[in-house]
Amino acid sequence: MTGQRRLENLVLTCITLLAGLIWMFPLYWAFVTSLRSENRVVSDEAGLLPDEFNFSAYRDALFDTSLMDWYVNSIGTSVIITAVVLLTGMMCAYALSQMQFPGRRLLYGIVLASFMVPAQALVVPQFVLMNDLNLINKWGGIILPQLIVPVVIIVYKQFFDAVPKEMKEAVVLDGGGDYTLLFKVYLPLNWGITTALGIITFIMSWNAFLWPFLVITTENMMTIPVGITQVNDAFGVAYARIMSVALLAAAPVVIAYLIFQKRVTEAVMISSGVKG
User: Angle, nearest 10°, between helix axes 191-207 and 224-235?
Assistant: First the structure.
């Protein structure tokens, strides 16, 4: 039995390694391509192994494109979106969980039902609204529609529902109000959840493409995912430059994932559990 289990573990390990290699190959190929000259990329002699270390594609990406502007736009909008989503989601979840007011159940039902509405279905009315508010080609136009993240409200509400009522009663007896309960009692208790939700929200907003692509038309206001498309337009089919920009664009998210890998995994499990 032990020998059979070892064989099963060996087979599973080999399958896992093979799956990992298949998943990593596009990243490896992008990196190898970015280190080659454009002529070398399209030549028949280009192989799988790196045979050239040409950093001209990275130099062009950094100095011949608006990459730094795209970085600033992506970082600025993602940070604002993450902060506002966490703050408003936490406050809304606290009200739904700990406060009594007419329509509370109906409001929570609407939040749950919002999962049934695909984001693409809201693109046209959101674009019309942003245009009426004169927010096209502005950070506000990128940020406002991305502030709707129901999963944050649901996760926070589940946490608040699980907090013992005796803790709330003790704070109320000491003269504390809702502000004290939320920010001085409940928030320190759920820093782990807040960190996980913050990381996953930041990554989602950083990687957002469809909405920023529609609402931004000027190159200096584009975010990283949208700006990559402009590299192709500026240089034609320049594979090395495209790959270099793509790798530079993904670098902050990859670094964040490596640093906060445990928290990202927790956030994915939390959001998957809610959606399931």
Answer: 20
